[in-house]
Design brief:
InterPro entries: TPR-like_helical_dom_sf. With 254 residues, the chain is mainly α. It is built from 13 helices and 2 strands.
Length: 254
Amino acid sequence: MDPELPVVRLCGKGMQAEAEGRAEVARELFQQAWDIAADDYEACIAAHYLALHQKSAEETLRWNQECLDRADRVADERVREFYPSLYLNMAHAYRRLGRRALAHHYFLRAAERVCDPAGGRHDRHGQRDHYDHHGQYGDWNRFAIAEGLRATADAVPAEVSDEVSDAPTLPGAAALQPLDAELDGRIRELLARWCARADLKALGLTLPAYLGHLGTEADRVRLRSALHMVHAARWLPADEQTELGAVVGATALR
């Protein structure tokens, strides 16, 4: 975003006020940004911040929808990188309202955009790196999407068809394949034990791959590789070493 745009400057001041605990001042600044927005692009930016300062779940959803609608109207490169966050915010808003099927739909839309082959960096073979994208902010988005997908995976999709027509599909994949529930539990147990004794090396290698697992083939490979590296280092207690070896060899990770 152009930092010289008046709307962006106002939103920057609002973020500073928010960081200082002056929530009402922040909201006033974001409202000013909305009031002076000159086009859909600027309105999209202002609506995003206004959505964060609403008192009800219904109003939060309304402003997130406004933000998404404005981005759709812009429909060019300026907003392409906004979409993972826009869909994620829609998902969170629907989840707060208890509409879990619609929340799951938008978590899927966010995952679709995170895995968009047109974005992000590429390795020396020309393959897109799904993980080295927008640094820590990209990681935060991916972690939130993965958590949301897991939490709403059992939602009944019937209500979605009545309100949205474009069911998402990941590029190059028929569907997301979340971790098997039993395997997920075994990995969580290992992570809990590493947390309890502050095994930072094991956690540092595995947590990003686990928390960011959206269910793509690349996610599966990355998680298995991370777990394998910890297993190959052989610094774990014998019982954990044995259990981790079984996890790495599990069919769901092959």
